[in-house]
Amino acid sequence: MLISLTDINKVFNQGKHNEYHAIRDISLQIEAGKVTCLKGSSGSGKTTLLSMIGCLSRPTSGRITLNDEILSGLPERFLTDIRRHTFGFVFQKFNLIQGLSVLENVMLPAYPLGLNHKELKASAQKLISHFNLDRVMNNPVEWLSGGESQRVAICRALINEPQILIADEPTANLDSWLSQEFMGLIDELRQSGKTILITSHDPAVFDSSVVNRVIEMQDGQILQS
């Protein structure tokens, strides 16, 4: 799915004394079936841009399209539906729900879709098995190691079979070995046809051969890509 951004701006506290321009006049096309990395230091705007692409927030101005369908002006209920069916999210700190098991965490994003519970459980178990997490399937997520938590977060992001995977600083809490393991998983997903967007300032990510394109950002603007 081709993602196109045209003249995107994001302004926080618009019209107030603390107005802040997080994204400035960004136009960009992101190819389907590729791994694209938004590179930049903290405050560069990469996470803000990613959140708008993933329909988690709206641009102040400009247009975002997905396969020629304009997303940026859609009512919230339609955006929510597109977000659930099109995007899977891996957050920086994983955002797993403590007190729930690995299996329950993986199934969670699919509940709003009203799927058959037995089929949903089978799909979640298949994902968990694929990522070699069978032995911890019924464990509370607070018992997991960093690498296990990362894989559970990926399983959860994939449960609704999204076409696009979004990962925000996915290696920030991992050591170098686990970061390399993560990129191996990303390569596997790329080869399966997923479109993958990653934000990172980790060389293990943006220098990886798995990444097809690096877009460098600074102060809400694109430096090079």
Ordered list of secondary-structure elements with their pairings:
Blueprint lengths: L2 E10 L7 E11 L4 E5 L6 H8 L7 E6 L2 E2 L5 H11 E4 L11 H6 L9 H14 L15 H13 L5 E5 L7 H16 L3 E6 L2 H4 L6 E6 L2 E4 L1
Parallel strand pairs: 3-8, 3-9, 6-7, 7-8
Antiparallel strand pairs: 1-2, 1-4, 4-5, 9-10
In brief:
The protein has helices spanning 46-53, 76-86, 102-107, 117-130, 146-158, 176-191, 203-206; strands spanning 3-12, 20-30, 35-39, 61-66, 69-70, 87-90, 164-168, 195-200, 213-218, 221-224. With 225 residues, it is α/β, with parallel strands linked by helices.
Task: Explain what you see.
- The structure is a single chain.
- Strand 9 (213-218) and strand 10 form a beta hairpin.
- It is globular and about 50 Å long.
- It is α/β, with parallel strands linked by helices.
- The chain has helices spanning 46-53, 76-86, 102-107, 117-130, 146-158, 176-191, 203-206; strands at 3-12, 20-30, 35-39, 61-66, 69-70, 87-90, 164-168, 195-200, 213-218, 221-224.
- The protein has a single domain (3-224), classed as Rossmann fold, CATH 3.40.50.
- Helices cover 32% and strands 26% of the residues.
